[in-house]
């Protein structure tokens, strides 16, 4: 039978073992049989909590961005406020909590954007994107022990300009979130003038 006639589908997991697990992640190793009968052993899967990030826009048309050292990349990276969704936590509530903890900002309106896989080849979690409007500082932050965060306000048009000119190297999921927010703004700016700075 031609392989062109075989449709993609779930693999058969013949066995599975956990190599490592803590409160941050689980590293699982599976013995899999593909749709075409090939055995993949071991196939590594990283189990993670759901992620969330927000494109937070102030009344002045500025994006609330953060700068933080990211040890995996070995660099201080500018990006969106983001975090993890705890067990049984609503993703929007998780993002509102993370925005307040990391930046000291609260938003008056929240818009859920499309959900995306983080990296479904190796990871089981998804990323929840939100657009937060009328973001204003409350003056209260609560940083985790591993966080030293600088809040950066950047006009939305300038932030997108930096991104497209290659002057801003961000987490890929954050870039996707920004583009989703821009597309939403372009579709709805006529009915909500708060979106105009994002519409470009």
Brief sketch in words of this structure:
The chain has 200 residues and is of the alpha+beta class.
Mind sketching the topology for me?
Layout: E1 12-21, E2 25-33, E3 39-48, E4 51-57, E5 62-70, E6 75-79, E7 82-84, H1 91-103, E8 105-106, E9 109-112, E10 116-117, E11 126-133, E12 136-137, E13 150-155, H2 156-164, H3 172-188, H4 196-199
Parallel strand pairs: 4-11
Antiparallel strand pairs: 1-2, 2-3, 4-7, 5-6, 5-13, 8-12, 9-11, 10-11
Can you tell me about this structure?
A hairpin with a 3-residue loop joins strand 1 (12-21) and strand 2. By secondary structure, this protein is of the alpha+beta class. The longest helix is centred in the C-terminal third of the chain and has 17 residues, at 172-188. 22% of the residues lie in helices and 38% in strands.
Q: Quick one: overall form?
A: globular
Biggest β-sheet description: 5 strands, mixed
Instruction: Give start-end ranges of low-pLDDT stretches.
Output: none
Q: Which H/E pattern describes the elements?
A: EEEEEEEHEEEEEEHHH
Number of strands: 13
- Rg calculated over all Cα atoms: 20 Å
Kindly name the structural category. Answer: alpha+beta
Question: How many helical stretches?
Answer: 4
- Strand residue content: 35-45%
Helix content: 10-25%
Please, what is the oligomeric state? Answer: single chain
On the 0 to 100 scale, the average pLDDT is 96
Q: For the record, give the distance between the C-alpha atoms at the N and C termini, rounded to a whole number.
A: 52 Å
